[in-house]
Automatic annotation (TrEMBL):
NADP(+) binds at L11, G12, A13, G14, S15, M16. NADPH binds at N66. This is Pyrroline-5-carboxylate reductase. It comes from Microbacterium esteraromaticum. Its EC number is 1.5.1.2. NCBIfam families: proC (TIGR00112). Transmembrane segments: none annotated. Keywords: Amino-acid biosynthesis, Cytoplasm, NADP, Oxidoreductase, Proline biosynthesis. It is found in: Cytoplasm. GO terms for molecular function: pyrroline-5-carboxylate reductase activity. The gene is proC.
Amino acid sequence: MVDSLPSLAFLGAGSMGGAILHGVVASGVPVEGGIVATNRSREKADALASLDGVTSVALEENPAGNTDAAASARILLVGVKPAMVPDLLREIAPSLRDDAIVVSLAAGVTLDTFAAGLGEGVRVIRSMPNTPATVGRAVTGLAAGAAADADDMALVRALFETVGAVIEVPESQIDPLSTVSGSGPAYVFLLIEELAKAAQGMGFSDADARLMAEQTFIGAAALLEASGEEPAELRRRVTSPKGTTERAVAVMQEAGLDEMFARATAAALARANELATGS
């Protein structure tokens, strides 16, 4: 982990921006020059005001908050809704520092859109993190724009490594990555929900069902991480021949679990493509 980070600005510290912001603060890595976070409402700004080292700005009270942040921060993370990105880029473009690195958190917004709004020479990196950043266990994909060099990429990588693992990919792989790691936490939560419901259907209390389902997933993930083994190998070890687990897994495979995940990720990718075209 890096010793320190340069000044940061989160322009739109909503769900994803807020997750990264909380993760960076929780990491304890010093941010030289501090952190500025902007949100439209005072209510949203107040939710971040107690974070150590963060200046939280309500744009309804300070309309110049984004441009002020752009003028001071070395790394700007753009976390507004995708439809709002072009207007924000035009707003901040005249205020950017010469050494500024602009990082996109916006799903479906291309590097070309950033270049059109900021100018071809501005260093832009497109990112796709996920919400476990809040607890320091994110997976983040990074794709560099034409003006971003290796040093820029290394600095932004170091930022995201304070909240988890990082994968560098070409931009063409950012949207596919989002269907796995970006949306993936929702898939896991859904599986936990359904396993808990199955336990409830067998007579367990809501609390016990939730405990069993949640801790089974948490424990299995911890075992996978600690063992260094392939998931398929650990599954084989749990699945005794002609045993109960083997029969249960067979039901899932017969139901087309592999096809279901392929269809789900394809649907997510189609939606990402729609977002990129503004639909």
